[in-house]
Design goal:
74 residues, 3 strands, single chain, three-stranded antiparallel sheet
């Protein structure tokens, strides 16, 4: 049986080459992650960017990056 967890991020894009990513927490349900957003969205650092929260669903004990890294041409 797959067990799911939910990562909550706040991602603010400064420009095309710069982003500010904060991992807020890992939750046992989507609803718990949404509750965290409700508690945080009016706090300093988040109040000006309330739409920049992201919730991602992940499978517990499963690798997420299995192909390795690639070099991009400059």
């Amino acid at each position: 049986m797959q067990r799911l967890v939910y990562f909550l991020y706040h991602v603010r894009y400064e420009d095309a080459d710069d982003e500010d990513v904060k991992l807020i927490g890992i939750y046992s349900s989507h609803e718990q992650a949404e509750l965290a957003i409700e508690q945080l969205k009016n706090k300093p650092g988040f109040i000006d960017y309330p739409d920049d929260f992201q919730i991602t669903e992940n499978v517990l004990n499963q690798d997420g990056w299995v192909d390795g890294f690639i070099d991009l041409p400059e």
